[in-house]
Amino acid sequence: MIEHKSPVDIERMRVTGQFVGQVLAELADLAEVGVDLLDLEQHARRRIKERGATSCYWDYEPSFGKGPFRNVVCLSVNDAVLHGLPHRYKLRDGDLLTMDMAVTVDGWSADSARSVVVGTPSAEDLRLIEATETALDAAIEVARPGNKLGDISAAIGAVAAAYGYPVNLEFGGHGIGRTMHEDPHIPNDGRPGRGWKLRPGLTIAIEPWFAAGTDRIVYDPDGWTIRSADGSRAAHSEHTVAVTESDPIVLTRIDGPKDAS
Ligand code: MG
Ligand code: MG
């Protein structure tokens, strides 16, 4: 079932979204060579506690993970792309780091992810990150009443194809609202004009992620961290978006110079 939100609900989700966007920006600033992933996790925990927010990840036990999850951010390095379990690891020059975070504030959730390069970037990694950000922008642009869910998927797939990256269809975007994962599922590729008709009040997390060389994934023994099957690097960009009567509202995009996505 898809729950459509009122403008007041969307404004509440925006409050949560701004907090998620702010903390991700802080984590991106903190992510320097020599910084431990657990330090980033601790920073996010501190901020969530101060804010009186609740992590959507803590104690999460989905079918695809070895739960319960006992962290508040997913930190995925290099060939890791989704659900990276924070662990003791000091970031190295050139690491591609993806940070993904979802919280609930006053009953409303928001979910966002971004990828950055720590230290000296390679052109290939910057291009990969750019592809996910361009795909996210293209998908947001078509998140309008009258369009279909398939238009969002197709917009992401078209950007991936233009850059020459394959697309995995197992993990993609999702509805979001009172909880982190709601209907509908939004694959990162699909056929335009198909699926649910988008209506004002639909709130969704759109999250293109691509691995440079493959659409296949493998799991770490930790039961959570997902990597590209060929060891190629991967990137991920996600925003929580509200479909409205007019332009889509990007609830997790923060104003100001810290927002690079
Ligand atoms: Mg996320
Ligand atoms: Mg998500």
How is this structure best described in words?
The protein has 261 residues and is α+β, with helices and mostly antiparallel strands. The chain has a single domain (7-250), classed as Creatine Amidinohydrolase, CATH 3.90.230. The chain is 28% helix and 23% strand. A five-stranded antiparallel sheet has the order 7-6-8-13-14. Strands 1, 2, 4 and 5 form a four-stranded antiparallel sheet that branches. The chain has a three-stranded antiparallel sheet with strand order 3-11-10, with no helix packed on it. Helix 3 packs antiparallel against helix 4 (149-163). The longest helix has 24 residues, at 7-30. The protein starts with 6 loop residues before the first helix and ends in an 11-residue tail after the last strand. Bound molecules: magnesium ion (MG) (2 copies).
Give a quick precis of the structure.
This protein is an alpha+beta fold and 261 residues long. The chain has helices at residues 7-30, 37-51, 123-141, 149-163; strands at 54-55, 74-77, 80-82, 96-105, 108-117, 173-175, 182-186, 203-206, 209-211, 217-219, 226-228, 234-236, 239-242, 249-250. The protein is built from 4 helices and 14 strands.
> What would the principal axes of the Cα set say about the shape?
globular
Bound molecules: magnesium ion
What is the structural class? alpha+beta
Return the CATH topology: Creatine Amidinohydrolase
How far apart the termini lie comes to 30 Å
Query: Main β-sheet, in a few words?
Result: 5 strands, antiparallel
Strand content: 15-25%
Counted by DSSP, the helix tally is 4
Q: Low-confidence runs (pLDDT<50, min 5 residues)?
A: none
